[in-house]
Write a structure and sequence with these properties.
The protein is an alpha/beta fold and 245 residues long. It has one domain (3-243): Spore Coat Polysaccharide Biosynthesis Protein SpsA, Chain A (Alpha-Beta Complex). Helices cover 27% and strands 27% of the residues. It has 6 helices and 14 strands. The strands form 4 sheets. Strands 5-4-1-6-12-8-13 form a 7-stranded mixed β-sheet, sandwiched between helices. Strand 10 and strand 11 form a beta hairpin. It is globular and about 45 Å long. It starts with 5 loop residues before the first strand and ends with a helix. The mean pLDDT is 95.
């Protein structure tokens, strides 16, 4: 199986900022325009050639597993495997590290379950696949400009040079790009990583030091559904798109 036909959706977060919705269901199952957030991610990946998806679960895991099993029975084009974190949540780094055996040493895509976007033209994932150079990169991030990031009010995450090289936002400064929650990653990024629960951020910092963390700009509107207010904003934005002639 080609390496970039495999992906992981990170779906094990507690979703505390999305309360009270998450009192009754996990965040990936919250609906936007009648469709669960995780289904936006699955559909986007499937439309771009992904055939195998690992989903990690923790909070209200049984609900998410049931949803994915029901979907799998209807859609035979994508195989979904569950990476169980019900005993202990592993954070972003630990979650991906635990799932590495599924990818057999090959690069793969990671996609946060609360990230979606509307593209101006073409396919961001197709552009990422075309730009991916495993000999030169440990990870390739999809980045949105902060001016086109709905549901985001931070200072930005990265500066990016003309060749896609990334550096962290300097303290107390603004940066023009924010990570969308989507990347292509090579397993070597996790060489020497700690065991158990840990953040992926220190691994990115090491890749920056080696000049092996790159980015590609999203040509479109990124939508981060992180809070009830963000959900309302996303609903309004998508409704306006439908109403346009």
């Amino acid at each position: 199986m080609s390496a970039l036909t495999r992906a992981m959706i990170l779906a094990a977060g507690l979703g505390t900022r999305m309360a009270p919705y998450t009192a009754v269901k996990p965040k990936p199952l919250i609906e936007l325009k009648g469709k669960a957030l995780i289904d936006y991610a699955i559909d986007r990946l499937a439309a771009n050639g992904v055939k195998f998806i690992v989903v990690n679960v923790h909070y209200k895991a049984e609900m998410l597993v049931a949803h994915l099993e029901k979907r799998s029975k209807k859609d035979k084009h994508v195989k979904i495997e569950i990476c169980d974190e019900t005993d202990a949540i592993l954070d972003t780094g630990g979650a991906v590290a635990k799932a590495l055996p599924y990818f057999e040493g090959e690069p793969f895509i990671t996609h946060n379950s609360d990230s979606l976007w509307v593209e101006d033209i073409g396919s961001a994932l197709a552009r990422m696949k075309a730009a991916w150079k495993p000999d030169d990169m440990d990870a390739l991030m999809l980045l949105a400009t902060t001016t086109r990031a709905l549901g985001y009010d931070g200072r930005g995450d990265f500066d990016m040079d003309a060749f896609g090289g990334l550096t962290r936002r300097a303290e107390m400064k603004l940066a023009p790009f924010v990570w969308t929650g989507v990347q292509i990653v090579h397993p070597r990024l996790f060489d020497g990583a700690p065991k158990g629960r840990f953040s992926i951020n220190p691994l990115w910092d090491k890749a920056i030091e080696r000049g092996r963390l790159r980015g590609i700009r999203l040509d479109g509107q990124w939508i981060h559904v992180g809070t009830p207010e963000g959900l309302e904003e996303a609903d309004a934005f998508l409704s306006d798109l439908v109403r346009e002639p």
